[in-house]
Amino acid sequence: MVGRTVPLRPDAAHALAEHLTPAGSGHLWTGAKFSSAWGTRDLLDTTLVRPDLVAEISADTSVDRGGVYRHPMRYVRLRLDATVDDVPRFGGGPAAAAG
Q1: pLDDT tens-digit readout, 2-11
Q2: pLDDT attached to residue 42
């Protein structure tokens, strides 16, 4: 993960939820805690999902030293015409070529 979006509008959240698949056991983030907003200690009730969808986002390009976007991203739309192998790795070349 390199960032997060602002909360999705209800219609966008429902449309996205139709395509999500629950993660199986051994998900990389099992046991991880996520805050509800930057700078808060309030934790989200999280359901992990399989990382196999591509979403288009709008983001400020400011990145901190840890490689995380400094400002929250905005969800634009789900890209069912693209796979995760079509998306370049953050800070590198195409995902398929990095394997």
Answers
A1: 567 888 999 9
A2: 85
How far out from the chain centre does Cα 17 lie? 13
Half-sphere exposure of residue 79, counting CA atoms within 13 Å on the CB side?
13
- Give Cα 6 distance to the centre of its chain: 11
Compare 57 and 70 and report the one with higher pLDDT.
57
How many Å apart are CA 58 and CA 92, to the nearest integer?
A: 19
pLDDT in tens, 31-40: 888 887 767 7
Q: How far apart are CA 81 and CA 19, in angstroms?
A: 13
Q: What is the DSSP letter of 87?
A: S
Question: Tokens 């999280």 sit at which residue?
Answer: 46
